[in-house]
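Researcher: We plan to redesign the surface later, but first we want a full-length starting point. Tokens attached.
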């Protein structure tokens, strides 16, 4: 099992010192990766519904650090941890600029980038950025096809209903020549179909065993229909973990039994000191026992 931790991106801890303190603590205590979410602007008038809880955990006045810039800062201050996005909302971003930015981040970090992408949910944010919300799924499919081509070949052209460019060179390519780990977020049929077609794996949300099982079963059927071997699809999820050790172990072991190989955790904390203690305590009390095959 591999473990990642979300970096602070909003509120009082979303500073250079705060971000680097969490990233370095994660690296020092044995976490495999650090992760960022993705929002660019916060529309003050919105009717869109946050899909993961009653309301978003951040407020307009909290600010929100840009995802790839944050990872670039962390890349220069760490040596080992993988740099992940959970998730990058690709359809609200310019395709070629994003391809170049991610490839550059991979080169300058020594090949440490791992991205999870999604179609997004906030229509007002798309509108503010001048991007189309209604066609975001189709556009994301086109973006992934284009990125895969450019990262592997370094040159190419593309023609689709939502994305067109004549032949270009996009160098440097990622160090692994197109093999940046690519996770696909989302739970609907379109998202899971995207996993089978483009992704190395599925990046889920939460720890609810029933919902995760439903997603896995749907994904397995889609893979079978497409002729893709099930064992080639990896499973990752992001979740909060209980403060009580036994409850945390149970939640993680349940995910492991379902086949998840990576868990990205959130730690609720009132202060930076509390957050760093939570990260260190999790590494010592939970990660060690999981690696040793603990079961509760």
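Model: Full-length starting sequence:
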């Amino acid at each position: 099992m591999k473990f990642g931790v979300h970096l602070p991106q909003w509120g009082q801890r979303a500073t250079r010192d705060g971000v680097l303190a969490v990233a370095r603590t994660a690296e020092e205590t044995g976490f495999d990766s650090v992760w960022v979410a993705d929002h660019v602007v916060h529309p003050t008038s919105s009717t869109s519904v946050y899909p993961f809880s009653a309301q978003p955990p951040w407020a307009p006045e909290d600010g929100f650090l840009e995802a790839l810039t944050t990872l670039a800062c962390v890349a220069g201050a760490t040596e080992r941890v993988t740099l992940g996005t959970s998730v990058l909302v690709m359809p609200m971003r310019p395709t070629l600029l994003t391809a170049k930015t991610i490839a550059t981040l991979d080169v300058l970090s020594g090949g440490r980038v791992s991205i999870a992408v999604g179609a997004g949910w906030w229509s007002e944010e798309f509108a503010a950025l001048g991007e189309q919300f209604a066609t975001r799924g189709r556009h994301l499919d086109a973006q992934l096809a284009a990125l895969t081509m450019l990262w592997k070949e370094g040159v190419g052209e593309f023609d689709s209903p939502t994305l067109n460019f004549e032949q270009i060179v996009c160098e440097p390519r990622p160090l692994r020549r197109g093999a940046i780990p690519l996770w696909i977020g989302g739970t609907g049929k379109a998202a899971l179909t995207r996993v089978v077609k483009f992704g190395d794996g599925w990046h889920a949300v939460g720890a609810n065993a029933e919902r995760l099982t439903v997603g896995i079963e749907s994904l397995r059927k889609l893979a079978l229909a497409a002729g893709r071997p099930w064992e080639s699809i990896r499973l990752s999820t992001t979740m909060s973990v209980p403060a009580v050790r036994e409850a945390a172990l149970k939640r993680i072991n349940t995910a492991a039994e379902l086949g998840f190989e990576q868990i990205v955790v959130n730690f609720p904390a009132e202060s930076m000191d509390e957050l760093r203690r939570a990260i260190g305590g999790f590494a010592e009390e939970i990660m060690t026992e999981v690696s040793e095959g603990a079961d509760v």
